[in-house]
TrEMBL record:
Residues 26-83 are annotated as: Disordered. Residues 44-83 have a biased composition (Basic and acidic residues). Residues 360-565 form the Helicase C-terminal domain. One of its GO terms (molecular function) is RNA helicase activity. It catalyses: ATP + H2O = ADP + phosphate + H(+). This is ATP-dependent RNA helicase. The keyword Translocase does not apply. The Q motif is unique to and characteristic of the DEAD box family of RNA helicases and controls ATP binding and hydrolysis. Residues 150-332 form the Helicase ATP-binding domain. SMART domains: DEXDc, DUF4217, HELICc. Pfam families: CTE_SPB4, DEAD, Helicase_C. Gene3D superfamilies: P-loop containing nucleotide triphosphate hydrolases. It comes from the Eukaryota.
C-alpha cells in the first residue's frame, strides 16, 4: 500500500515536471544566455524520486541543522540499512547562489612557437645520436627551446631555461649530456660512478627522465643511467650504485639519504647538475636538501659542475637560487615577450609575469553552484568519455589525497561497468530500442577506466597507475598536484581542475599536461559563484578562458540515466527521469545512497569533506580574498561529497577554522606543509623538513655555497 501511494505521489510530480522543466525553452527573458541556467536552477520545482521516501526541503534553520546532524550520526552507525524515512535531503536545484556575470576579458595571449623547422642534423651531434632522435624516436625537427639551449649547453655554459609546458625541455638538457659523455676521449666506465646528476621533484618524473636517457643511450650502451627515488628499496638502490651508474636521476630527499649513508656513492666526477622544475622544488621546501647536495658536490668535486635550472615558470625563488648556484648563466626564455619581461638583473617579477601556454590549448571555465559540483563532474566525464562519439583521456585535479580517493571509488561504483549498457548513436538519435543493428557503437564508462594517483599510495601502485594511464588510449585519472608537474602522459585530451589551483603557476602546470609538443588539448576549470574573480586573476597573467554553460554540461546525464537498465514492471517505468534536472537529481541520489549504505564510503566521504575544507583554508595570500573558507556553505560542500549533511565531527573544527581564516587569512594551518609535502614525499622525512621563507633560502645558499 505504501509503495502504491509513493508511486502515485511520484507520478504526479513526474507529470508536473514534464511540462515544467525543459532545458531549452524555460528561460527567463530578461537575462543573458549564461545566466539562464542558474535562474532556472533557482526557481524550478524539485524532482522527488518516490523510492527514497524522503522529504526534500530548503536549507534549514540551525534547529533543523541539529536534527540533520543527529540523522547523520545515526546514518554513520546504521550503515547497510535503508535511509530513515524522515531524513531531510536538501534539493539539488534550490537555494543555490546566483551565478554572477563573469567578466572574462579576451586578453592577448603570449605565444611561443613549439617547432623550429630545423633538424637535429644542424647541431654538432654524433651521427648515432641524430639517427636515434630522428629515426628511432621520430623527432623530425627541433623545438624552439632545444634549438636555443643545446648549443649553449654544449659550450659548457650554465643556464636558466624557461619555456612552455610540453616544449621538450627534457631533451634540451639530456641531449648535450649524452653528446658530451659519449665524446670523452677516455671512454667512461660504469664503475666511474656518476658524471651527471638530475634532480626532479616527483618519483614519476624520475622514471620519466630516466626513460628519456635510456632511449638516448641505446647506441651508447657503455653509459649507464640509473635512478633513486623514495618508495623504492634502499638496498636495491645501493646495489645498483655499487655496480655503477653514470647518469643519476633522483628526487632530492632520497639522493640526500644516499649521500649521507651510502658510502659507494661518490660525486667526485660530477660534471653536470640539472635541477628540473626548480621552482617547485623550492616551493616544496627541498631547498635544505638542495643546499646539502650542493655542499656535498662542493666538497667532493674539484671543479663546480655545469649547472642548469629549468621550468615553464621560473619564480623569484629560482632567480635567487640561480644567482647563487649558476656561474654567469645564459637566460634562455622562449616566447614572444621573453626579452621584454626580463628585468635588467635578469630576474622576473612573478606577480606581473605573463606565462606562455600552448596556442593549441583551448581553455574553459564552468561556474557551478557547490551542490551541483559532483553531478556536473559526472556529467562532464560522461559527455567526454561516453557520449561525444570518441572516448577521451582526461585528468581531473583535486586538492587532496582523501578527495581523490573518495571520488575515484564513488565514480567507479556509480558510473562504473555495472551501471552501463551500450547504445548506438543512431538509436539515441532516433529513439529506437536496443535491438537495432545500425549505428556507431559508443564506448561506455566501463571502457574508460577511472584511475587514481596521489602521494599516499604505495610506490608500486603509483608506478602501475602511471604506466597504465600512460599507455591507455582513453580513461580518467583523478589526481592531486603530484601529477601536475612535468609528467608527459601521451594523448591527454582534457584537463579538469575540479578544485582551483590558486597560484597561477600551478594552473599553468596542470593544464600543461595536455596540448604537449604541438598536439591539441582542452582544459576546464570548475569555479563556484563566490570564486569567479579568479578569472580576472588569470587574465592578469594573459591567460584567456571561455565560459562553458553548466546546463549544457549537465545534458548528458539524461542520456545516461535513460541508458541504465530499466525496471521490468510497467508502473516503475514512470520513474525514468525525463528532464536534465530529474536526471541530475536521480544521479545525485545514487551517489548519496552509495555513501549512506556503505560504511567505508561514508568514512571516505567524511575524510574527503574534511580535507577539502582544510585545503581550502590554505590558499596563498595572492588569492586568499577569492577563496575564502568563510564563504563556503558546509551543507552544500557536504552535498558535493554525496553526504546528506556535513559530518558532525568536523562541524566545530571547521567553523573554528573558518573563523580563524577570517581573522587572519595569511596564517596557514600547521598541517598545510605536511599535506603539501606528502604529495611529493620522496619517502624520507620531507614532511618534517623545515620550509624556510624566501629570504632565508638566500641566506642559506649564500653562507654555505662558496664555489664562486
Ligand atoms: N623535437 C621534438 N619533436 C617532437 N616531439 C618532441 C621533441 N622533443 C620532445 N618531444 C616530445 O614532447 C613531449 C614533451 O617533452 P618534455 O616532457 O620534455 O616537455 P617539457 O618542456 O619538459 O614539459 P613540462 O614543462 O611540462 O615538464 C615528450 O613527449 C617528448 O617526447
Amino acid at each position: 500500500m505504501l509503495l502504491l501511494n509513493t508511486m502515485a505521489e511520484f507520478s504526479n510530480i513526474s507529470l508536473n515536471l514534464s511540462t515544467d522543466v525543459n532545458v531549452n525553452d524555460v528561460r527567463p527573458r530578461s537575462r543573458s544566455n549564461k545566466n539562464r541556467a542558474n535562474k532556472k536552477f533557482n526557481h524550478k520545482e524539485k524532482f522527488v524520486p518516490a523510492h527514497t521516501k524522503v522529504e526534500r526541503r530548503e536549507e534549514s534553520s540551525p534547529k533543523e541543522d541539529n536534527r540533520k546532524r543527529k540523522l547523520s550520526d545515526n546514518a554513520e552507525i546504521s550503515h547497510g540499512k535503508k535511509p530513515k524515512s524522515d531524513m531531510v535531503i536538501s534539493s539539488l536545484f534550490r537555494k543555490n547562489p546566483e551565478i554572477p556575470e563573469v567578466l572574462s576579458s579576451k586578453v592577448e595571449t603570449v605565444s611561443e612557437n613549439v617547432f623550429t623547422g630545423e633538424t637535429f642534423k644542424e647541431l654538432p651531434l654524433h651521427p648515432f645520436l641524430i639517427s636515434n632522435l630522428e629515426e628511432k624516436q621520430g623527432f623530425k625537427q627541433m623545438t624552439e627551446v632545444q634549438k636555443k639551449a643545446i648549443p649553449v649547453l654544449l659550450k659548457k655554459k650554465d643556464a636558466l631555461i624557461k619555456s612552455q609546458t610540453g616544449s621538450g625541455k627534457t631533451l634540451a638538457y639530456a641531449v648535450p649530456i649524452v653528446q658530451m659523455l659519449q665524446s670523452r676521449k677516455l671512454k667512461i666506465k660504469r664503475d666511474d660512478g656518476p658524471y651527471a646528476l638530475i634532480i626532479v621533484p616527483t618519483r614519476e618524473l624520475v622514471l620519466q627522465s630516466y626513460d628519456t636517457f635510456v632511449k638516448l643511450l641505446r647506441t651508447f650502451i657503455w653509459i649507464v643511467p640509473g635512478c633513486l627515488m623514495g618508495g623504492e628499496k634502499r638496498k636495491a638502490e645501493k646495489s645498483r650504485l655499487r655496480k655503477g651508474v653514470n647518469i643519476l636521476v633522483a628526487t632530492p630527499g632520497r639522493l640526500m639519504d644516499h649521500i649521507k649513508f651510502t658510502s659507494v656513492l661518490h660525486l667526485a666526477r660530477i660534471q653536470w647538475l640539472v635541477i628540473d622544475e626548480a621552482d617547485r622544488l623550492l616551493e616544496l621546501g627541498y631547498e635544505r636538501d638542495i643546499a646539502l647536495i650542493l655542499n656535498a658536490l662542493k666538497s667532493q668535486c674539484p671543479d663546480p659542475p655545469q649547472t642548469v635550472l629549468l621550468s615553464a615558470t621560473l619564480t623569484d625563488g629560482v632567480e635567487r637560487l640561480s644567482s647563487i648556484t649558476l656561474d654567469n648563466p645564459e637566460h634562455i626564455c622562449v616566447g614572444e615577450l621573453a626579452d621584454t619581461l626580463q628585468q635588467p638583473n635578469g630576474s622576473t617579477d612573478s606577480s606581473q609575469e605573463n606565462f606562455t601556454l600552448p596556442s593549441q590549448l583551448k581553455q574553459y571555465f564552468i561556474v557551478t553552484p557547490c551542490k551541483l559540483r559532483l553531478v556536473t563532474l559526472a556529467a562532464l566525464m560522461l559527455w567526454k568519455c561516453k557520449y561525444s562519439g570518441c572516448s577521451s583521456k582526461m585528468i581531473i585535479f583535486m586538492s587532496t589525497q582523501d578527495s581523490v580517493h573518495f571520488h575515484s571509488k564513488l565514480l567507479n561504483q556509480v558510473l562504473g561497468p555495472a551501471h552501463n549498457i551500450k547504445r548506438t548513436l543512431t538509436q539515441m538519435a532516433l529513439g529506437q530500442d536496443e535491438s537495432s543493428e545500425d549505428g556507431v557503437e559508443l564506448k561506455d564508462m566501463s571502457e574508460s577506466t577511472i584511475y587514481q594517483l596521489h602521494g599516499d599510495m604505495q610506490q608500486k601502485d603509483r608506478t602501475n597507475t602511471f604506466n597504465k594511464f600512460a599507455k591507455a588510449t582513453s580513461g580518467v585519472l583523478l589526481c592531486t598536484d603530484v601529477a601536475a608537474r612535468g609528467l608527459d602522459l601521451p594523448h591527454v585530451d582534457w584537463i579538469v581542475q575540479y578544485t582551483s589551483p590558486g597560484a597561477t603557476v600551478d594552473y599553468i602546470h596542470r593544464v600543461g599536461r595536455t596540448a604537449r609538443a604541438g598536439t591539441k588539448g582542452q582544459s576546464v576549470l570548475f569555479l563556484m559563484p563566490s570564486e569567479v574573480t579568479y578569472i580576472q586573476e588569470l587574465n592578469k597573467h594573459k591567460i584567456s578562458l571561455d565560459q562553458m554553460d553548466v546546463s549544457s554540461v549537465l545534458e548528458p546525464l539524461l542520456l545516461h540515466v535513460q541508458d541504465l537498465p530499466q525496471p521490468q514492471d510497467v508502473t516503475s517505468k514512470r520513474q525514468i527521469p525525463k528532464t536534465v534536472e530529474e536526471a541530475a537529481t536521480f544521479l545525485q541520489d545514487r551517489f548519496e545512497e552509495c555513501v549512506l549504505n556503505d560504511k567505508d564510503m561514508n568514512i571516505l566521504a567524511s575524510k574527503g569533506f574534511q580535507s577539502y575544507i582544510r585545503a581550502y583554508a590554505t590558499y596563498s595570500k595572492e588569492v586568499k580574498n577569492i577563496f575564502k573558507v568563510s564563504d563556503l556553505h558546509l551543507g552544500h560542500v557536504a552535498k558535493s561529497f554525496a553526504l546528506r549533511v556535513a559530518p558532525a565531527m568536523v562541524h566545530n573544527a571547521t567553523a573554528t577554522l573558518a573563523l580563524k581564516h577570517k581573522k587572519k587569512t595569511s596564517n596557514r594551518p600547521d598541517n598545510f606543509r605536511q599535506v603539501t609535502l606528502s604529495e611529493y614525499s620522496s619517502g624520507l622525512q620531507a614532511a618534517n623538513c623545515n620550509v624556510k621563507t624566501k629570504p632565508s633560502i638566500k641566506r642559506k645558499f649564500k653562507t654555505k655555497l662558496k664555489w664562486k
